[in-house]
Design goal:
Blueprint: H1 9-17, H2 20-26, E1 48-49, H3 68-73, H4 77-93, E2 98-99, H5 123-137, E3 142-148, E4 161-163, H6 166-184, E5 188-191, E6 195-196, E7 199-200, H7 205-215, E8 221-224, H8 232-237, H9 248-260, H10 265-286, H11 295-309, E9 311-315, E10 327-330, H12 355-362, E11 366-369, E12 372-373, E13 376-377, H13 381-389, E14 393-399, H14 418-430, E15 434-439, E16 454-459, H15 465-474, E17 506-508, H16 517-523, E18 540-549, E19 553-562, E20 568-578, E21 589-598, E22 603-611, E23 617-619, E24 624-626, E25 630-639, E26 642-651, H17 664-667, H18 671-690, E27 698-700, E28 703-705, H19 708-715, H20 719-725, H21 732-742
Parallel strand pairs: 1-2, 2-3, 3-5, 4-6, 4-17, 5-8, 10-11, 10-14, 14-15, 15-16
Antiparallel strand pairs: 6-7, 9-16, 12-13, 18-19, 19-22, 20-21, 20-25, 23-24, 25-26, 27-28
């Protein structure tokens, strides 16, 4: 455009018709849930609402879809896409344009109060699930991915300064957002409350302009979290386009800043253009024809989604339970299931079929006792213990009371309430045939697990919980979920434990990239149940794994067979490790996952393509991702701890950026560099290390054969030291020529 800002023609026409005050008002919201619409200028308003698992608007007909903690446990991108599509259709039906979600912050600590809203402790699982969810939802309405970025605790969340090194920020905390932006083009991104390394997210030009827009190519608009704007003028300068909720005094503040020359009208226009573009994009979606789901269709989808997410953690032959058995059902969650967490994700849902009601449809002989409520043992506790004696199987519905997990505060413990642990232990003494069904949005301490013959982790499965749970207990559904987080047996097994929530206004990410299972595997810590763990009612085997190298990817194939007696789904997990120690790296990292359904006895040849980009690490010296050379191990695993079948392949790294402080070891990553060490540098290395040009040392392929001391000193020697230690015989000029020769491709 003539103002030097790229705009759509229609956007430019609308912008021309707006007064300066209307422009400022457009950037500061109309009310709590919408933007300014200007009819005479042809500008529609954007209507938005929480939440990522239902519509948080009074009077809206809404279902509750599984929370992100549950969706991630499906390890199934199609389940995430279907959940997004169902929610998007409900938002559209209600006349709302923008879902304020999904929330996709990393689960840095199991104590974060909003972990139920987040997908995983693993960036790849988080980004693939969120990208699929956004693609599904944006068939009908827009999505606003949140909270950008590093909003990983609720304690002091509106003022805390998240402090982390560049590699940690990029590899762990920004990577999920990058993938979703580039794969799914979300309409909007919500900037978080916190500071990042000293700068508020809402006025962080490095984050919102340099990375989000320029590097990742984001084309949507950025809105603030509610009440997150520290300085309205600085936010507009950083292209944080929309302040929410509405703030008329900030409208005046922006006007005064333009009048005084502190803010140019061009800067105002740029933010306005982003909001107008989005309003037009959403208006087009609003006009797209669609058929709302019937009640029956919605119920069926919700049951299928919920069933795909539950994780079977333990089964000592007790599940599934035959229809002829007498069943005891205990715990108020059986009647009042926990569907969701508190805060902005909480929605008022209609009538939901409870697990108890659904179980009654399968089992003729069933008794129910409340046993315990949200705040202690129930009046019928003694009768519960008596009733349990006569049952074939006791189903005990336990979990975290709704007040335990919410926006606004963090958890203080991983434990279940004491009365629930007492009930588990005392019921088990009366009747050993106990299955514990867990509800909650995050890790629960299962140190009581020896009392139970079965444990089913239900998380927050949404409105389909009743049918899903009854289907799994009765055997109509074969459970196939996997843990998207490490089930720790002690808080000290969390790498964030020394830093989380207790350093005043600083959240220091001292654990770096070692979050969750990356820390457990590196430290040899065995959690109660590891990341990726889950069992089913059938067995699977892997065979004939092959790997080959393509142009931009590694091609991997394996044969998967259902060796058990019933149909089921296997979560295929591929982890990668590398022997290169130039950077601190985890033992293995999830790099690919898939969910494969097979009938009993069926086998299938699976073929995957793993792009090299997924194998790259962030190099702080060059401020970019690069492939480090080394021996790479590709392993199909049943969880992050347990390899089933693996293959190894050496990979040459990307060329480095060389300078006078580069060490000789950095030259050894390429064939050209190794040749230079063998043929050109050998005499100077001998002079520097041994004091003579003609030392009796053999260097082949960049390795000093049979001389460990020489080899290690050589590898760790900076190029500049060759100049110092040879009395200048290896000249500055030779060093520069060498750097130029090596650096041609960097």
């Amino acid at each position: 455009g003539k103002r030097g800002i790229k705009m759509l023609k229609h956007t430019r026409e609308i912008l021309k018709k707006l007064t300066l005050r209307q422009k400022a008002a457009l950037l500061t919201g109309k009310d709590c849930w919408s933007t300014l619409g200007v009819e005479e200028a042809g500008l529609p308003s954007i209507r938005m609402s929480d939440s990522p698992n239902g519509i948080r608007m009074p009077g809206c007909d809404t279902d509750v879809i599984p929370s992100a903690c549950a969706l991630a446990s499906s390890f199934n991108v199609e389940t995430a896409r279907r959940a997004g599509e169902l929610l998007g259709s409900e938002f559209k039906n209600a006349g709302i344009d923008l879902i304020l979600g999904p929330a996709m912050n990393l689960k840095r600590s199991p104590l974060c109060g909003r972990n139920f809203e987040y997908y995983s402790e693993d960036p790849l699982l988080s980004d693939e699930m969120a990208a699929a969810f956004v693609q599904g939802a944006q068939e009908h309405v827009g999505c606003c991915i949140k909270h950008f970025a590093m909003n990983n605790q609720e304690t002091r969340r509106m003022s805390v300064n998240s402090v982390a090194d560049e590699r940690t920020v990029r590899e762990m905390y920004l990577e999920p957002f990058r993938t979703v932006v580039q794969k799914s083009s979300p309409v909007s991104v919500m900037s978080s409350y916190n500071k990042i390394n000293g700068v508020y997210s809402s006025e962080n030009k490095r984050l919102l302009v340099d990375i989000l827009r320029k590097e990742w190519g984001f084309r949507g608009f950025v809105l603030s979290d509610w009440g997150a704007v520290n300085d309205a003028v600085e936010s507009v300068k950083a292209q944080m386009d929309l302040e929410m909720p509405s703030n008329p005094s900030d409208t005046d503040k922006l006007l005064r800043a333009v009048e005084k020359g502190e803010l140019s009208e061009k800067q105002l226009d740029r933010c306005c253009a982003n909001v107008i573009d989005a309003a037009l994009r959403l208006a087009r979606l609003r006009g797209k024809k669609f058929r709302p789901y019937t009640r029956g269709e919605r119920d069926a989808i919700l049951r299928e989604l919920a069933a795909d997410c539950a994780v079977l953690l333990k089964n000592d032959g007790i599940l599934p339970v035959g229809q002829e058995k007498k069943i005891g059902v205990f715990g108020f969650f059986a009647k009042e299931p926990l569907l969701q967490g508190g805060g902005s994700a909480h929605v008022e849902q209609g009538k939901t079929e409870s697990p108890l009601d659904a179980l009654k449809k399968i089992y003729g002989n069933i008794v129910y006792s409340e046993t315990f409520g949200e705040t202690g043992l129930s009046a019928d506790y003694a009768e519960s213990l008596q009733a349990a004696e006569d049952c074939d199987v006791c189903l005990l519905f336990c979990g975290l009371p709704a007040s335990c997990e919410s926006e606004g505060y963090d958890r203080t413990t991983l434990s279940l309430p004491p009365e629930q642990i007492r009930a588990i232990r005392e019921l088990a003494q009366v009747n050993p045939n106990i299955v514990v069904l867990l509800m909650g949005g995050s890790v629960i301490d299962v140190s009581w697990q020896d009392c139970a013959k079965g444990i089913l982790e239900c998380y927050m499965l949404g409105s389909g919980v009743g049918g899903a749970v009854a289907g799994i207990i009765g055997g109509a559904v074969n459970p196939s979920g996997r843990l998207a987080e490490s089930f720790l047996s002690d808080l000290r097994q969390s790498s964030a434990a020394p830093y989380f929530g207790n350093y005043g206004d600083t959240a220091y990410y001292g654990e770096g990239v070692f979050v969750g299972y990356r820390y457990c595997t590196a430290k040899g810590i065995r959690p109660a149940y590891p990341f990726g763990y889950g069992i089913s009612y059938t067995e699977f085997s892997y065979g004939d794994m092959q790997i080959s190298r393509g142009q931009d990817e590694i091609r991997i194939s394996v044969t998967l067979r259902n060796t058990g007696g019933r149909a089921g789904a296997e979560v295929v997990q591929l982890y990668v490790s590398c022997d290169n120690q130039d950077i601190a790296r985890p033992v293995r990292e999830l790099k690919l996952f898939d969910k494969v359904y097979l009938n009993a006895g069926e086998e299938k040849r699976l073929e995957y393509s793993l792009p090299f980009s997924r194998l790259k690490n962030y190099d702080t010296a060059r401020h970019g991702f690069r492939l480090y050379g080394g021996n790479y191990r590709f392993a199909f695993c049943s969880d992050c701890e347990t390899e089933i079948v693996s293959r190894e392949m050496p990979l040459e790294g990307d060329p480095l950026h060389y300078d006078r402080n580069s060490i000789v070891g950095d030259l050894l990553y390429t064939a050209e560099g190794r040749k230079i060490v063998d043929e050109e540098l050998k005499p100077y290395l001998c002079l520097a290390i041994m004091g003579t040009f003609n030392a009796d040392v053999r260097i082949e392929n960049g390795k000093a054969i049979g001389n460990l001391m020489f080899d290690n000193v050589m590898r760790n020697m900076p190029l500049r030291a060759l100049y110092d230690l040879t009395g200048g015989q290896f000249t500055e000029d030779m060093m520069l020529r060498l750097i130029n020769k090596l650096g041609r491709r960097s």
